[in-house]
Amino acid sequence: MKIPWQEKPQTCNDVVWRYTENPIIQRDAIPSSNSIFNSAVVPFNEGFAGVFRCDNKAVQMNIFAGFSEDGINWKINENPIDFKAADEGQVIGDYKYDPRVVFIEDRYWITWCEGHNGPTIGIGYTFDFIEFFQCESAFLPFNRNGVLFPKKINGKYAMMSRPSDNGHTPFGDIYMSYSPDMKYWGEHRHMMSPADFKDSAWQCTKIGAGSVPFLTEAGWLMFYHGVINTCNGFRYAMGSAILDEENPHIVKYRTQPYLLTPSELYEQNGDVPNVIFPCASLQDLQEDKVTIFYGAADTVVAIAFGRISEIIDFTKKNSL
Amino acid sequence: MKIPWQEKPQTCNDVVWRYTENPIIQRDAIPSSNSIFNSAVVPFNEGFAGVFRCDNKAVQMNIFAGFSEDGINWKINENPIDFKAADEGQVIGDYKYDPRVVFIEDRYWITWCEGHNGPTIGIGYTFDFIEFFQCESAFLPFNRNGVLFPKKINGKYAMMSRPSDNGHTPFGDIYMSYSPDMKYWGEHRHMMSPADFKDSAWQCTKIGAGSVPFLTEAGWLMFYHGVINTCNGFRYAMGSAILDEENPHIVKYRTQPYLLTPSELYEQNGDVPNVIFPCASLQDLQEDKVTIFYGAADTVVAIAFGRISEIIDFTKKNSL
Amino acid sequence: MKIPWQEKPQTCNDVVWRYTENPIIQRDAIPSSNSIFNSAVVPFNEGFAGVFRCDNKAVQMNIFAGFSEDGINWKINENPIDFKAADEGQVIGDYKYDPRVVFIEDRYWITWCEGHNGPTIGIGYTFDFIEFFQCESAFLPFNRNGVLFPKKINGKYAMMSRPSDNGHTPFGDIYMSYSPDMKYWGEHRHMMSPADFKDSAWQCTKIGAGSVPFLTEAGWLMFYHGVINTCNGFRYAMGSAILDEENPHIVKYRTQPYLLTPSELYEQNGDVPNVIFPCASLQDLQEDKVTIFYGAADTVVAIAFGRISEIIDFTKKNSL
Amino acid sequence: MKIPWQEKPQTCNDVVWRYTENPIIQRDAIPSSNSIFNSAVVPFNEGFAGVFRCDNKAVQMNIFAGFSEDGINWKINENPIDFKAADEGQVIGDYKYDPRVVFIEDRYWITWCEGHNGPTIGIGYTFDFIEFFQCESAFLPFNRNGVLFPKKINGKYAMMSRPSDNGHTPFGDIYMSYSPDMKYWGEHRHMMSPADFKDSAWQCTKIGAGSVPFLTEAGWLMFYHGVINTCNGFRYAMGSAILDEENPHIVKYRTQPYLLTPSELYEQNGDVPNVIFPCASLQDLQEDKVTIFYGAADTVVAIAFGRISEIIDFTKKNSL
Amino acid sequence: MKIPWQEKPQTCNDVVWRYTENPIIQRDAIPSSNSIFNSAVVPFNEGFAGVFRCDNKAVQMNIFAGFSEDGINWKINENPIDFKAADEGQVIGDYKYDPRVVFIEDRYWITWCEGHNGPTIGIGYTFDFIEFFQCESAFLPFNRNGVLFPKKINGKYAMMSRPSDNGHTPFGDIYMSYSPDMKYWGEHRHMMSPADFKDSAWQCTKIGAGSVPFLTEAGWLMFYHGVINTCNGFRYAMGSAILDEENPHIVKYRTQPYLLTPSELYEQNGDVPNVIFPCASLQDLQEDKVTIFYGAADTVVAIAFGRISEIIDFTKKNSL
Amino acid sequence: MKIPWQEKPQTCNDVVWRYTENPIIQRDAIPSSNSIFNSAVVPFNEGFAGVFRCDNKAVQMNIFAGFSEDGINWKINENPIDFKAADEGQVIGDYKYDPRVVFIEDRYWITWCEGHNGPTIGIGYTFDFIEFFQCESAFLPFNRNGVLFPKKINGKYAMMSRPSDNGHTPFGDIYMSYSPDMKYWGEHRHMMSPADFKDSAWQCTKIGAGSVPFLTEAGWLMFYHGVINTCNGFRYAMGSAILDEENPHIVKYRTQPYLLTPSELYEQNGDVPNVIFPCASLQDLQEDKVTIFYGAADTVVAIAFGRISEIIDFTKKNSL
């Protein structure tokens, strides 16, 4: 498996840079889609699998499986994932969006925003990206951006999430919760708040976990989104955070500057302008590479690259 | 009279497709204009006439007559329509915008949004697009998007409209009203509500009648706009509805998917980004063609094409 | 018929004074009622009849007939008015509230706030207060406080109303509309706006027609409500207006000071504190007396008295 | 143990009636208190114990233990409950309010609204009302009105709660959640929504569980609060619901009318006018009596009485 | 001169207690008045003079002079103060409300809320309470609650104020500004912010200077108002603060608990329920007495008493 | 010194035209910058100096000095201006943005938006653009867009500003204030309000002073911004005003049409779309030229040109 990669342009002074052929997935990549964005990928077999948010032309939200050999060219199923009940009591939701995927122990776990009289965190799993099972939702509404850790922490599953309201939530902190069994959740801990306007305005309105964290020597490295409420609407940018290895609800470092902010036309124009929304990363620790997948303008999927060591270094040196 | 037309591109799978030379009317098509959009056209003599919303550079709203031989290249008068009083009691409004035009019996009726201590529906008529007469407004404020049917229904004039409030109305249903004389209105019937977010999010905030309906074998076919309230503002898209021939306040079918959504730069950028707002159509029933006129981004006028039979078929098969 | 009356207390310097035994109708005057308020009365036979807003204990709104010999002690039916369709096309509403009653020519007309996907003006009539007929609603939503004139004006029925929105409307002007037949309405005229905060703050947020106007030598005399939006909610007070006899949409005089403002415990405490809401008056022109019926705190019905000549004089001398 | 009781007045036709000596606890019952309200009681030893919400004169919210022999005259501790950590990981909250108390198996469990960067549901227990232990909070913020069932359901603890936002929440449904161990929670089920405005307006804005349910032959009987948003603020009234014995997240009946609405001066005047907020009940099934404890106007504690059989009957016959 | 006084009731444990005959000024104390509240008094000749906010029955706001021998029984002029221009450039305002009065050097200075396209701080003076002069307003809009110090600080006039917005301001801090000449103002210093909700909720929304500070051995003692935004509107209570003698923009102590909160019917009922708004105090340092004048429910004037030494002690011991 | 210049294109009929190579300063012109916009320039030595708003990648706002030989190619310092205290009492603010620069008598004065518990007007000066001194802020919060006149008026400094609130202010008028010493400010005069929606909608929400006025034969000529609140956010355009020479708070003329409105991609796309925000002009009275500097889309700096005589003529002929 080789993750997608492109070297940094010589004129670029930033630690993260865009793929020159962005967006890698167009809004009409499947016949029914209005837009494809905020999607997650993982290594799978010799290549990659992913779970994609495709809104159809009625702007109904659902998640779809897809596959790729190189991580750049994707074949997305034309029908949404058809979950089977993992459990007798499973509740079928009103809609599904913003998936994340992570391999833990023996299977691929998927989390997403699930409609249950308002948004909350749906959980499901697959072994093969063909057959999918839906479990109990993790929390009461209203919640969004549930992101699992790729291994148990002190014997328990760990999930970040962002308690929300039932609209265009104008606030938002990241919390951690733990579970012995992926069914019952507790030990809720507050992790991160938005920054003060005067310290880091791009993340002063709300923040939410983005990609599945991966372990580095410095701790868990995660990409997250931050939002500022301008007089012309919300603007979403991306930062990074380093979490304590043993107690990942402890944030050790977190970028005061953003790593990426909307500045290309495909990030500035679309169904919701000025949005960069990371949902996954692929990393090659040995080659010191990471490829970040993000939704752009709630319309397309794009990728960006970075050197893990540089990002860690930057996060430490520019911590809020 | 031949309506404007361009065949569907081979790569297009949609039932409605854009004109490749859009926008057909630029924002500065007349010297005083800041923007020209949300305008209506009808067949007239050998060619076409139209009533155009031109906001001037003080962003005052008014409506202007214009003429075209081919429906694409338009000559718009440099001065707004100067209405004469049709009636002693006529009230002169504060502003005029978003006109529709329809021929009934012996004359061209024009409806528009009329300022009368808030927006309501203005009514006027012309025989020749040279001399214009203004009648009593149809309703009390607050109302927008008044669209007349092209013939009397059970002996009465019929008008759709959308009761509103005095600002950026965050709700909106379509109602029908009837009148024996174009002066007094009653028999108000509720026609269509916004869709549920989970069923058809593009039209979940408000909807409004767009083009003048025309009669097909399936019933009256109308294009309407639907709005979703995103965290970055309202987005306007277009759908179609089929209304009962005898009782047109009965909606028989209505598209769950949109037919057009803002995705070209001239629809995504402008005075109000992400707006597609249909106000008229030209149809050739024998050739099975329809050409839809819509305002784009509250800045310019664009057109799109479709086969009537395909649109009817699509509307029936994809009905909400 | 003698209208209810009590002489002015010697210590009172105001032109309108309260009945000492207020409220005349308690919130639980019928077994099912949560509250009885905003109700209308007329002379009927030897005594009086009325239409009462009684919200039941589920807080569903409906209107009930009632009778009284003296105008003070009322017997209200325990069941709401059961309207028959006056017309084949009549639409049954979601709820009914805030009735007004007026005798025109041969029958008693009732107007009220009718639920039709939002509030609008319902119309019905009765000859005997036993059998009731419901007609077409007058207007499109959203509207409240429809008040008819007691005779035709220039051959047409005349109704005041207040265009509203679908919530706790924070604005509101009074308009006049005319109809040849009580079915189709038009010739809408703007009558009165809220006052400037600095000129007459008690009526600076919205105003609405209250009682049915009656003709005096000075013109039509009407009591209306005005609202101020304080930091602790809306406060409703009462003023008077004199309208032109021939063209009653012309307001000749209108009190800058209120005539009554909430200051008794039954006006300050209740389901909606600080509300005085007039819906009817009984007048004896020969005796120069008027008795005003008003809802207090959205909970009970109260009355107040005045000398017509004094009120006219006051209105002229203290006009806005 | 005899629960507080007073027979129904002969003039009363309602199923629930107030104690004539209300309020039973004044706002200044302890020296530091600004107000004492929204409090819970249980049988304890020969008499009763309770947990009281006392806001001090800095309007800081905390909960206090208290004792009574007759359930009417209470002695409340002058210092708030000093919780010990039940668990190493326990988080100390910012504030505590609106407690409920219930005996399950071997101890008295207390739930309350706990400040944890926003309101959520705190959990603690005591064996003796002298020594108290605080556990992990049940849920992520934002949540209020957590009410436990008095026994395990299918081997699990069951708790109702109302997901909220971080302000004066203008919406609110009741959900059920289950836990094997009082620490991790899942199996979230939607139970009850606010009613439609036209069906039962007193509960059309939000609802929340009130008293601890108790088992009757008809199922679990619970008193809950419902809220309407008037133009002068929120008004809180009380209804009852009957829940399925085996699957208590299934609501079998629920009153369309309220049982109590603010109509006494101590309910209409206070720190937050027009509030009736039930938090507990004492019942004597053999004597067919229930005594409901409720906070009035966010200022004092009051009680009301009813016959259990009558309430069940009323709830069934007047179900929404 | 003896200030109004009544000894503390034996049952009272508070440092401030109300006058048993409150309110001392009724809403209709002059013929034109709707309400009289938020008013200021000073010793004058052998007795007292005051400036009173009297809203008339058109709810127009203005300020009136008044006189009293004992500080309790007041004779208020029936006409508002008629200011002469102190200066050629003086701007006449739209309205006047919430006056404060203070004697500095040779004259009585009056400050108030002045309408100048929005509220700001008006300034005037009198030598005799007969002839009044209006100066330039102190600040740009939007501002309220301007309170002068009774002597110059470091050679300059000193004024506290609360920057506001043009509506029911939902925020508000107290600032100090200085002026060499009562005409030009600068050296703006931030003094006090609202408290955190969890520390002192009664003053968590906004605060504003109340009475003119007077010098004690502990520093300047001032009474101020604090506001909490409940779901039923703003509630205004009163606290005290001790300011540094030399640099009075330095707040040394400030009560975490309130001194007075609305709990009498005349404070809970009125044009704006639940308001206590102090605007003045009279003090007798030798007798260790202070009498506080406050507006109640935006309707009447009331007074309360305290021992200066006890208040200072309480403020120090219960400081935020 | 020659100001930047480009002749009007032949196809242009407007009085102001854009530079063809806009934007002249890119968002990443210095390594740390996220965006550079809303900046001011003045003639300095043989060329030009400027003060630039550069938001860094944490979106912290600060102002930076820069220099240019031709007014088009700028070298901006990589570190923000490091102000020294001009005065012992100077308060250091939370942030700095939107600078203006003007030479008066012997030095360059800089004004900007200064964070002091909310935005207000900061004042500083320099003699050489190397050493900078910060003075007392001019006003209490909340204020923005403070613009000084280039010479004293009647012996006093004169500054325009726009009183604001602490968020995305939805209102805003321009006021004038005067000061004898740049420290204490008074004599506040209202200058200009937003226009009525129906008269000039582009400036109907708020307006603010833009460039430093310069004296012409017609009076002071200033460019200002006007804002309309669309359903997709605020749109900022530019107009001109002519102020009375002697009493510059008297507005003699003011353009009803805008001079520039967002219509290029760099004005329509960026951190805040649809913004044109003028902060400075360079003029050559002899050559009848003016070059206007404006921020575009809160992201970059652009320039536009005009003939002074034409602008004056246009302003007079098209005055509101």
From TrEMBL, chains A, B, C, D, E, F:
A Pfam family that the UniProt record links to this protein: Glyco_hydro_130
GO molecular function terms attached to this record: glycosyltransferase activity; hydrolase activity, acting on glycosyl bonds
Stored SUPFAM superfamilies: Arabinanase/levansucrase/invertase (SSF75005)
Domain of life: Bacteria
UniProt key word Hydrolase: yes
Sorted UniProt keywords: Glycosidase, Glycosyltransferase, Hydrolase, Transferase
Family: Belongs to the glycosyl hydrolase 130 family.
Name of the protein this chain belongs to: Glycosidase
